[in-house]
Amino acid sequence: MAPLAESLAVNVLDAGSLLSAFGALGIAVVLFAETGLLVGFFLPGDSLLFTAGLLCVDGSRGPGHLSLPQVLAAAVAGALAGAQAGFWIGRRGGRALLARGRAKRLREGAVRAEELLTRYGHAKAIVLARFVPVVRTVLNPLAGALEVPARVFLLWQTVGGVIWTVGLVLAGYALGSSIPNVDRYLLPMVAVVVIVSLIPLALELRRARTRGRAGEGDMP
Fold it and tell me: What region, left, alpha or beta, does residue 147 occupy, with left being phi > 0 and alpha being psi -120 to 50 degrees?
């Protein structure tokens, strides 16, 4: 009964708690829920991946040592399967599915996701969305609802999913391998990783605004 009680007491918002309770399997489940199910928009995908990379380092003092190959396989599988599930949910449910969402962050994420698709086109938007919390949750069903071609979505969600998952896991692993007792600084380092992951989107938005202003200046 004790192990069951500990599993039920896990904090789903804390990456360390999730990894301690469920290990690599928990990574796959969390990423599937965050990227495939609208109810998973609050889950800590970025910090989970980075923390998992840290816990793959030999001698880590975290909640439990993890296997790097298992973590990478679980992360990629969960992220890709989740995005694909979200796409088909959106294809079947349509935009009304997103309209019924009551969470403010979910509605805001849907607006930003649609802006990405409109401004950057399918390929770039699908890849960029992986690096933006909440947006990566709602863009997948939105792409299905907007009838993005299935082959196009599959290709670019795979590219984005692999870059996002493998990149963050290996970033955590590399830092953990090069800095002694790096897990002491876990929280600030996770915050830095999340901020850095938003830089590509910020640069794209800045370029788009610059091009928009230049276009307005050319109008008679």
Answer: left
